[in-house]
Amino acid sequence: MPQLKVVEAFSYTEKNGVQRVLRPGDIIDSKDAAVKGRPAEWFEDVEVTAERTTLRAVEQATSAPGEKRAAKKPVEKPA
Fold this sequence. Notes:
The protein has a domain at 3-55. The chain is built from 1 helix and 5 strands. The protein has one helix at 46-55; strands at 3-6, 10-13, 19-22, 27-29, 43-45. The strands form 2 sheets. It has a 3-stranded antiparallel beta sheet. A two-stranded antiparallel sheet has the order 2-3. The longest helix is centred in the middle third of the chain and has 10 residues, at 46-55. The mean pLDDT is 83.
């Protein structure tokens, strides 16, 4: 069963009277009662989230051994 990540915070009362609060980032099963009758925009497939996170490019702060980096021109101070 696919898992979903909650994107929008919401709360509801379960059939047994227990109040349930879901916050962005919570992981729930796609068959969970919280999903039924709620807008699809409130949830995102966990696999999609993981893929998007993996594909983000992060610039390195330093160069790798042997790698040349572009040098910035020094800023001239007004006299």
